[in-house]
Amino acid sequence: MLYKIGSELINSMSSLRREEIRKNVYSRAWKENNDEYLQALERFFDLTDNIEDENLRMEILYKMLKCDEILTKLAEKNFKSDV
What total number of domains does the chain contain? Predict the structure, then answer.
């Protein structure tokens, strides 16, 4: 699921002009202003709120955020090499 979201995000970002990528990649605005990304993130957090086991919930949140960080770094590296 995260891979699909990440690849969709990267594909949707590839339509940005190079100048926009260059300007936004350092501020992460390309990700933080993406409605599809934000909606998926909100859905994920809503679902994890229903997990009663707090340790399990925190572990899932940590793993997802770690995956998000890795995907973000990969996307930014890819953007920088395209610019």
Answer: 1
